Amino acid sequence: MKIAVIGSGVMGSGIAQVLASQYHVVVRDIQADALAKSKKSIEKNLSRSVEKAKMTQEVMNDIMSRIVFSSELSDIADCDLVIEAATENANIKKAIFKELDQVVKVEAILATNTSSLSITEVAMATQRPTQVIGMHFFNPVPMMALVEIISGQVTDVNVVEKVREVVLAINKTPVIVNEAPGFVVNRILIPMINEAIACLHEGVASAEDIDTAMKLGANHPLGPLALGDLIGLDVCLAIMETLFEELGDKYKPHQLLKKKVRANQLGRKTGQGFFTY
User: 47, 75, 225, 241: which is deepest, by most CB within 10 A?
Assistant: First the structure.
């Protein structure tokens, strides 16, 4: 099986890295510098595993030999599975899927790594909606064991099974989800982060104490505010807005979350969120 990953950012690079343990992978991006950065990132991650004796240099070389970095659409035309890992924006994703539909062979499966958007909406931008599915990997991809596999309204059951086999082959744990806003993890997780933000805004406790309370009281490895900073507060806001639009007032994004995003205080990636990095 040959697999394409569309987008060479943090998620795309991580997905390509884990897939290449078993499959030939093409990482496709329109920007050459982004592809070079992706290759360097994957090499750095694998080198770290070699240094820690978690893999041999030979295994690392084999993995890298199975990854091609390309800006050419023609290089993904014969892929059996295409995983899109672009910006979390429905219009951008639909435009990508419309293009993929015209380029990739007719029997190929098209998957989106969306964290909350409608699989059905994306699927209907193609002429093969039964072959469109969600594959929600979690960041950092090499470390996180879970992949949510999300069926759209018309996704074929055989497509679900084929994707499940891929997830198992790369030593990840699949959970099968019927399409719903936020799927399973983000339907529960992001509102919890939003509620932690409300507690902070109302002066219930400091950011540090809120996170300590949840780490020690609920046995969470990371507090909700630090987790929001890790995910990216812009991503948290986008997911909350999707939940709010689909499910109503119970999921209204907190005003402080909006203010943080407007100020570009997005968390770890900008150096400032609810904590300073």
Answer: 225
